[in-house]
Every structure is written in structure tokens, then in C-alpha cells.
Amino acid sequence: MELTAGKGLSSPRQIPGTTWSTTGRGAGDNALMGWVKTDGTLWMWGKNESGGMGTNNLVAYSSPTQIPGTTWKQVATSRYSAGAIKTDGTLWTWGENQQGELGHNRRSVSISSPVQVGSATNYVSIAASGGRFWTFRKPVSMV
Fold first, then answer.
1. Residues 6+ away with beta carbon under 8 Å from 1
2. Distance (Å, rounded) from C-alpha 55 to C-alpha 45?
3. Is residue 12 part of a domain?
4. 31 Cβ partners below 8 Å, 6+ apart?
5. pTM of the model
6. Which domain holds residue 96?
7. Which pLDDT tens digit goes with each residue over 77-136?
8. Would you say residue 106 lies in a domain?
């Protein structure tokens, strides 16, 4: 996988590894990046303000760092938060939560590690932009 690893770089940099899937998300002015490997592991790197990397700390990482678990399917990153879907169809979010954007029914409490949102198991896709997440679910009758 090749990414331009931040502003000020004039050419792409190779990120180690050969088993990256195409389900990663992150664009524009994001301070975070996240990708899922074909083995179901989730890897995050970036600024990590508000715990958006999911590493249970506020340390910035300049190279991919694995987030616990091996059943991740898709990830989306916003500027200071992230959301992901696992292979069982559950939704997980973490990071900045000033307006309750993580979906945990509380505001102003940032979360520094992945926390499941509700109990639904029919999430199929996630996208992020402007500090918000959009998710798509299968109709219950198709689950």
C-alpha cells in the first residue's frame, strides 16, 4: 500500500506489509488513518488526539499500530475519531465525542479504545466525514 504520509511530502511512502485489504478509509485533512488487513487485523496510525487511534492512550504513532482483535471487516476515520465494523456485523466507535457522534448516548466523553455501539449485528458498511459517521445495515428480514 502506498500513501502520502502527511503534508509536506512530495512522493508516496511505502507502508510495510503486503496483505492490506481495500477496506481502509481516511481522506483529506484526517489526523488518523486506519486499514484492515486480509487476516482481519486492524491497524491505525496518526495524531491520536482524543484517543482516536483506539490504543487506549493519547500517543501519536507514525507507523501502523495493531488494534486488538482479528475479526475487523471495515474501518472509517474522521479527523479525531474512528468507527469500524467487525465480521459479525457489530459496530464499534472510539475517539472524540463532543456532540455524541460516536453513538454511545453520551456527550463530551472521548473514548480511547473501541466500544461496541448497541447490539445490532447487521451493519455492512461505514463511512466518515466532518467528524460524523454514516453506517448502512441490512434490513432485519435479510439477516
1. 14, 15, 17, 20, 24, 35
2. 10
3. no
4. 46, 47, 48, 49, 52, 79, 80
5. 0.84
6. 19-142
7. 888 899 999 999 999 999 999 888 898 888 878 999 999 999 999 999 999 887 788 899
8. yes
- In the beta sheet, which residues pair with residue 10? none
**Distance between CA 103 and CA 107 in Å, rounded?**
9
**1 inside domain:** no
Domain count of the fold of the chain? 1
4 within domain boundaries: no
Q: 4 is written with which cell numbers?
A: 502520502
pLDDT tens profile 48-81: 889 999 999 999 988 889 999 999 999 998 888 9
